[in-house]
Amino acid sequence: MSDRYRKVPSARLSRFAAFGQMAGGVASGMVAEGARRLARGERPQMRDLLLTPGNAQRVTEQLSRLRGAAMKLGQMISLDAGDMLPPELTAILAKLRDNAHHMPPAQLQKVLATQWGQDWRRRFAHFEASPIAAASIGQVHRARLPDGRVVAVKVQYPGVADSIDADVDNVATLLRLSGLLPSALDIAPLLGEAKIQLHEEADYLREARQMQLYADRLADDPRFLVPRPLDDWTTDQVLVMDYIAADSIDTLADASQAVRDRSMAALLDLVLHELFVFGHMQTDPNFANYRWRPESGEIVLLDFGAARPVPPETSNAYRTLLRAGLAGDRDGLRAALIDVGFVSPALVIRHGTALDAMIDTIIAHVLRPGLFDFADRSFVERLREQAMPVVGDTASWHLPPVETMFVQRKVSGTALLAVRMQARLPLVDMVAGMVAQD
């Protein structure tokens, strides 16, 4: 069987065994790396032994095989960690954003027969057996209906929905045992919310409603295209939608500066509208959820399983935070960071000087005259140095409210895409125009 096809472990016992295999492989890798370093006369730290490329590769491979919540959490870690993870680990985990094994044909047949009946193929003029995309929750096939309409069929991996709670708990256990998280850090609210969101993403009927909502909302915006679901074909585990031919968003990087700037301005404007106008946000900024049509410049938006309302208090807190930043108000920005939940009062007491230095660095960089150059990362190293006392003091670590974390995930992911595209935007003017409105 091709390496591209791997059966999805659907039984709870087989998935648990896979986690055990993952933990065993990581432990073996740590022992081997420790022996190598001791032989060189070094005294390795536990964290250094864990975060090796070999161990990251083992974890990546197993999460890709498990798919579902396990792989989704790996994607979140790789995207959200930004500049805080070692480059080797970031590069390897980034593969989870783009790659997943495919279901073998027999497993695909069983899933679709369960959803549509044994004669499901008669409903199509043509159904492509090889998927055109594969991700954490499901894989996508292209098909043609008897009337000639081309559609995309997203098929959920078997056992994904039933394994979410156990997968999240198992990943949390691995993080705890790894020592990467301080024991005093309460991640229970985050884990609970992650389970809720993942269950929502596994409900394709819900995603179809969210897709329709965005298609209606952006119908008159020439910058975007959103597929529409076919309700008569969609079930809770199979989502049928319009097929829109488009290229990977990565191909946008080869376009001219003007085209890249125009496209990223559209995506940033969408985020600002989601946060301050729509009160509803697609919170998964995985780059695979964006595609680009070079002939028209349109951006195709995909995957609405993570779309969710933005509470008014979260929008208001972000508005206050951004207003303070645009005004260059350090004290106001510090207070807003506490209010939105990024910073705890205890952290301000313990590391107020370092926090103020970081705020000054960010304000100085963002408020420089002219277009904001996302490719200019000159301030990142300075921020790393200023953040070292905070990062090293695990007792001061703090998790923001889950609503803030999901919104910030979209904001940060959009910024990372703008960095990849080396966009230059009138960032201050765009943000100021939005936050000026109440």
Secondary-structure topology with pairs:
Elements: H1 12-39, H2 46-50, H3 53-66, H4 68-80, H5 87-93, H6 105-116, E1 126-127, E2 133-134, E3 138-144, E4 150-156, H7 160-178, H8 188-201, H9 204-217, E5 224-225, E6 238-242, E7 247-248, H10 257-278, E8 280-282, E9 290-293, E10 298-301, E11 307-309, H11 312-326, H12 330-340, H13 345-366, E12 372-373, H14 378-392, H15 402-420, E13 424-425, H16 427-435
Parallel strand pairs: 5-10
Antiparallel strand pairs: 1-3, 2-3, 3-4, 4-6, 7-9, 8-11, 9-10, 12-13
Short characterization:
The protein has about 450 residues and is of the alpha+beta class. It has helices at about 10-40, 45-50, 55-65, 70-80, 85-95, 105-115, 160-180, 190-200, 205-215, 255-280, 310-325, 330-340, 345-365, 380-390, 400-420, 425-435, and strands at about 125, 135, 140-145, 150-155, 225, 240, 245-250, 280, 290-295, 300, 305-310, 370-375, 425.
Q: Would you kindly provide a written description of the structure presented here, covering whatever features stand out?
A:
This protein has 438 residues and is of the alpha+beta class. It has helices at 12-39, 46-50, 53-66, 68-80, 87-93, 105-116, 160-178, 188-201, 204-217, 257-278, 312-326, 330-340, 345-366, 378-392, 402-420, 427-435, and strands spanning 126-127, 133-134, 138-144, 150-156, 224-225, 238-242, 247-248, 280-282, 290-293, 298-301, 307-309, 372-373, 424-425. The strands form 4 sheets. Strands 1, 2, 3, 4 and 6 form a 5-stranded antiparallel β-sheet that branches. Helix 3 packs across helix 4 (68-80), helix 7 (160-178) runs antiparallel to helix 8 (188-201) and helix 10 (257-278) packs antiparallel against helix 15 (402-420). The protein is globular. The chain starts with 11 loop residues before the first helix and ends with a helix. The relative contact order is 0.09. Mean pLDDT is 81; it is low at 8-40, 42-51 and 78-86.
